């Protein structure tokens, strides 16, 4: 077949090549036990419908907190030196839908933020970040309602290693 | 309203894309300012950082760049195949629907109805609309190819056919609703989408357009047809595997990380075929770059394309990723291909095609030069400040410095980034003004010799 004259040939070959890579990097992970495992951390993050934590997570997504904060601890020098908690594994995230890994640490990682901060601190900090952390570049969330703020704090405080 | 005039669909896609370029880049500038002054435009939930940022990314990618791409395909495919676009009416209808969809998207993101998945923030019903739009474009292009008068398929057509098959696939994988997947599986699908929408849509349509423009601008046929085909097949083979390289050192299995890292390195092959072809074609023609702003844009775009594709595999290495991932380096890198390479190709295409469609000469060469120099200088200021800040930040984190100290040390660079960003956007106002004035008051345009050279 003369490919330079056959659009159908290009069409089929391009589709097959795409399917190969998709099969390897998207479909195969579904059959990987490590990828599909659950653990106590993910069970602790399976928030009941209507709970403060579940609503707090919605607010976290709505306000785009994940544009500046990651929720991943990697086994690399930076993350170990920053002392941000245990290295995370796929099982920790089994009940995260959507995932909130993030791609930029304009602010610190929040995977285990509940283990190193208090509810009072978080509430103050959300309302007026610069008052609590001098020089912070986080925006103020004082426009959120009292309920929204409390829910968001409940969510943040739930982010800690399961006992 | 739905015109059937020749090239009207391409034209409408481009003109509205320019509007979105200004809007979405302004959103980017707001975000850059907010990193300097967190209270800038603050106090309103609709303008908070976390909501404006997705407006910037979705606007630039789904509105500006994607619409430029569609315009390029609607213009170039009929030209190369000596066949009218299958349906200008359908094309114009797609354009109207596209603009309505993006407008809805901006409102939805500003009001906080985000899925939370980076680059795939739009809700399901808009995802479905975008998929329908992509299919409408594909139908129009494929039907044009089917009815073609010219049998030979020039390499640009290959790239367009490939892109139109890959885009719906990439889009579907990236937008599977969270309740169906979630967790590490979804993070992996997220980056499959985040990476491949660049590589199998923006890159492949951009390179296809470049292969159309290069002979037109230089008056020389491309150096090697075979090399361009090798580039096409290698990008089609290796690119789709690259998603997991965004998750190097992250909580996904090691084999999956490697499945992303190895093809990243092999991607140097398609990049090099493109560069070799450009350099080969330019042999003996470099003097033309001096007086031709479009060629200046093209050569600069190719340099940025090469740089982006050398940085990419480098960053995919586990040791390098361990230092620069999550730092300011990332936005420095992430802007290079979409802005420095493929937006530039979009600019050239519009500068090239508008006189041929409207019969009016580009209004101001001076403004075109300003557009070029401010874009390039602005981007370099932006990128280098981010790269330097990122490396500083990465090593400071490894030293275990308190987080606020690392924020303080990068503060000047973040401010310089906003200056670079300002230059980048001022440049686009020269562009928009120039195109507007061309249509309003441009002198009569005569077809030049480049029309006679076959692609």
UniProtKB/TrEMBL annotation, chain A:
UniProtKB keywords: Heme, Iron, Membrane, Metal-binding, Transmembrane, Transmembrane helix
Annotated Cytochrome c domain residues: 51-160
Entry-linked InterPro entries: Cyt_c-like_dom, Cyt_c-like_dom_sf, Cyt_c_oxidase_monohaem-su/FixO
Gene3D superfamilies in UniProt: Cytochrome c-like domain (1.10.760.10)
TM regions (residue ranges): 6-31
Highest taxon above the source species: Bacteria
GO terms for MF: electron transfer activity; heme binding; metal ion binding
Name of the featured protein: Cytochrome c domain-containing protein
Organism: Ammoniphilus oxalaticus
Lineage start: Bacteria, Bacillati, Bacillota, Bacilli, Bacillales
UniProtKB/TrEMBL annotation, chain B:
GO annotations of cellular component type: membrane
Domain named Cytochrome oxidase subunit I profile: residues: 12-455
Keywords, alphabetical: Electron transport, Membrane, Respiratory chain, Transmembrane, Transmembrane helix, Transport
Annotated TM spans: 12-37, 57-78, 90-110, 122-141, 153-173, 193-214, 223-241, 261-281, 293-314, 334-352, 372-395, 415-436
InterPro entries xrefs: Cyt_c_oxase-like_su1_dom, Cyt_c_oxase-like_su1_sf, Cyt_C_Oxase_1
Coiled-coil annotated spans: none
SUPFAM superfamilies: Cytochrome c oxidase subunit I-like
The name this protein goes by in its record: Cytochrome oxidase subunit I profile domain-containing protein
Taxonomy, superkingdom: Bacteria
GO BP, one annotated term: electron transport coupled proton transport
Organism of provenance: Ammoniphilus oxalaticus
Molecular function as annotated in GO: cytochrome-c oxidase activity; heme binding
A Pfam match: COX1
């Amino acid at each position: 077949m003369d490919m330079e004259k056959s659009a159908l040939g290009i069409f089929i070959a391009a589709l097959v090549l795409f399917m190969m890579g998709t099969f390897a990097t998207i479909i195969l992970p579904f059959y990987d036990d490590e990828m599909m495992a659950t653990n106590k951390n993910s069970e602790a993050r399976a928030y009941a419908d209507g709970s403060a934590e579940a609503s707090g997570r919605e607010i976290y997504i709505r306000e785009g907190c994940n544009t500046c904060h990651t929720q991943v601890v990697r086994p690399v020098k930076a993350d170990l030196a920053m002392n941000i908690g245990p290295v995370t594994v796929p099982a920790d995230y089994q009940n995260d839908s959507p995932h909130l890994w993030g791609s930029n640490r304009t602010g610190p990682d929040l995977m285990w933020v509940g283990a190193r901060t208090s509810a009072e601190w978080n509430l103050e900090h959300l309302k007026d970040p610069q008052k609590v952390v001098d020089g912070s570049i986080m925006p103020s969330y004082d426009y959120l309602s009292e309920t929204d703020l409390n829910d968001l704090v409940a969510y943040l405080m739930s982010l800690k290693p399961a006992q | 309203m739905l015109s059937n005039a020749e090239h009207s669909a391409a034209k409408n896609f481009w003109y509205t894309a320019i509007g979105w370029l200004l809007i979405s880049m302004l959103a980017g500038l707001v975000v850059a300012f907010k990193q300097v002054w967190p209270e800038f435009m603050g106090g309103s939930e609709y303008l908070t950082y976390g909501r404006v940022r997705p407006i910037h990314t979705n606007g630039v990618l789904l509105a500006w760049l994607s619409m430029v791409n569609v315009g390029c395909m609607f213009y170039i495919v009929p030209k190369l195949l000596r066949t009218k676009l299958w349906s200008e009416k359908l094309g114009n209808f797609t354009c109207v629907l596209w603009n309505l969809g993006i407008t809805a998207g901006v409102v939805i993101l500003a009001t906080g109805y985000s899925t939370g998945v980076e680059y795939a923030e739009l809700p399901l019903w808009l995802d479905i609309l975008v998929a329908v739009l992509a299919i409408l474009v594909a139908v129009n292009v494929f039907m044009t190819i089917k009815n073609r008068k010219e049998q030979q398929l020039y390499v640009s057509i290959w790239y367009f056919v490939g892109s139109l098959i890959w885009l719906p696939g990439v889009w579907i994988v990236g937008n599977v609703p969270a309740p169906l997947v979630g967790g590490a599986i979804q993070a992996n699908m997220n980056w499959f989408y985040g990476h491949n929408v660049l590589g199998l849509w923006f890159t492949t349509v951009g390179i296809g357009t470049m292969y159309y423009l290069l002979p037109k601008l230089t008056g020389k046929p491309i150096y090697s047809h075979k090399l361009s085909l090798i580039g096409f097949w290698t990008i089609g083979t290796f690119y789709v595997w690259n998603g997991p390289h965004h998750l190097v050192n992250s909580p996904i299995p090691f084999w999956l990380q490697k499945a992303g890292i190895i093809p990243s390195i092999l991607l140097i092959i398609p990049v090099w075929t493109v560069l070799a072809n450009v350099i080969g074609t330019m042999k003996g023609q470099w003097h033309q770059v001096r007086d031709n702003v479009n060629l200046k844009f093209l050569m600069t775009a190719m340099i940025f394309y090469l740089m982006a594709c050398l940085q990419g595999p480098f960053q995919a290495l586990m040791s390098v990723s361990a230092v620069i991932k999550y730092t300011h380096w990332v936005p420095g890198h992430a802007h290079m291909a979409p802005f420095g390479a493929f937006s530039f190709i979009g600019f050239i295409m519009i500068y090239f095609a508008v006189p041929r469609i409207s019969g009016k000469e580009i209004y101001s060469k001076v403004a075109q030069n300003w557009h070029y120099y401010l874009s390039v200088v602005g981007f370099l200021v932006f990128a280098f400040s981010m790269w330097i800040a990122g490396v500083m930040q990465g090593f400071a984190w490894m030293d275990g410095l308190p987080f606020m100290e690392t924020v303080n040390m990068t503060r000047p660079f973040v401010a310089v980034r906003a200056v670079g960003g300002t230059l980048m956007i001022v440049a686009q106002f020269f562009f928009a003004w120039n195109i507007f004035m061309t249509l309003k008051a441009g002198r009569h345009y005569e077809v030049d010799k480049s029309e006679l050279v076959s692609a």
